[in-house]
Design a protein that fits this description.
Elements: H1 20-26, H2 32-40, E1 49-53, H3 59-64, E2 70-75, H4 78-87, E3 94-97, E4 110-116, H5 124-134, E5 135-148, H6 154-166, E6 190-199, E7 202-205, H7 206-214, H8 226-240, E8 246-249, E9 251-260
Parallel strand pairs: 1-2, 1-4, 2-3, 4-5
Antiparallel strand pairs: 5-9, 6-9, 7-8
Length: 261
């Protein structure tokens, strides 16, 4: 399903369903510390019912499944949910195709709601009241984001330049460490329980880094033609021949854990 937001990619549409197969293969990259930090906050553990909105290919539910929570994942893209179901074979995880703004669950149904790499796409004026409604009293809405830091990696910086060559409208470049501001839309509904960030280097091979770039919003999910994407791939693969076979890319994780009031 196409998504268009005026403050993202200069208003050009993108569709995560276009890159679902690559997303499933190359975007399950969060390090162990990422999941441990979530559990240390008392979230996504046994005895809890958790909704993961913007679940994509179900990366969070699948990797947190071992901690015992009951998970439901929702996503606007049918293709993403199809991949999530395939990857979750043998796990008792439910998935629904739905925008975050219109997920349909009873009031006070969930102990926690998680949102990873997707908060920027939501209509906050709709999502915050919706999440507040379906959370139990004192339930948590945990917003997570992980990004590579191009200022600290020549490989990441060069890959970004190449993406921008083919898609100058892509606004997902030049990320720096940041913390979320408390949004006006959450006032009177939530309060901040945890807000912190930490560095998390991620190891890639040439193949997995190329896949990560192809599965980003600037290439695979963009409105670029198949020919343009193929041109990017040829050039990027050629560039990666000049870098080590295995390398680390510095990443930064931001955590914004809100509690229902």
């Amino acid at each position: 399903m196409k998504i268009t937001k005026s403050d993202i990619d200069n208003g050009k549409s993108f569709d995560w369903g276009r890159t679902s197969e690559d997303y499933a293969k190359f975007r399950d990259i969060y390090p162990d510390i990422f999941y441990k930090k979530i559990v240390e906050m008392g979230l996504c553990v046994k005895g809890q019912r958790v909704l993961d909105i913007g679940t994509g290919t179900g990366v969070l539910p699948r990797n947190l499944y071992k901690y015992g929570a009951e998970f439901i994942g929702s996503d606007i893209s049918e293709n993403q949910i199809e991949q999530a179901r395939l990857l979750s074979a043998g796990m008792n995880i439910s998935y629904v195709v739905s925008p975050a703004e219109t997920v349909d669950f009873p009031e006070k149904h969930f102990d926690a709601v998680t949102a990873c790499q997707c908060y920027q796409y939501f209509d906050k004026s709709v999502v915050f009241p919706k999440i507040h409604s379906i959370l139990k009293d004192s339930g948590h809405f945990c917003i997570l984001f992980m990004a590579w830091i191009p200022d600290e990696s020549e490989i990441a910086a060069n890959s970004e330049k190449m993406i921008l060559k083919y898609n100058p409208s892509w606004s997902g470049h030049s990320m720096k460490r940041f913390a979320y501001d408390f949004p006006d839309e959450a006032k009177g509904l939530f309060e901040v329980e945890n807000s912190f960030g930490y560095d998390a280097p991620v190891t890639f091979t040439r193949e997995s880094w190329h896949g990560r770039m192809k599965a980003c919003r600037g290439i695979g999910a963009s409105s670029l033609s198949a020919d343009k994407i193929a041109e990017f791939e040829r050039e990027h693969i050629e560039y990666l021949k000049s870098v080590p076979e295995i390398f680390d890319i510095p990443h930064f994780v931001t955590v914004f854990n809100l509690r229902k009031i």
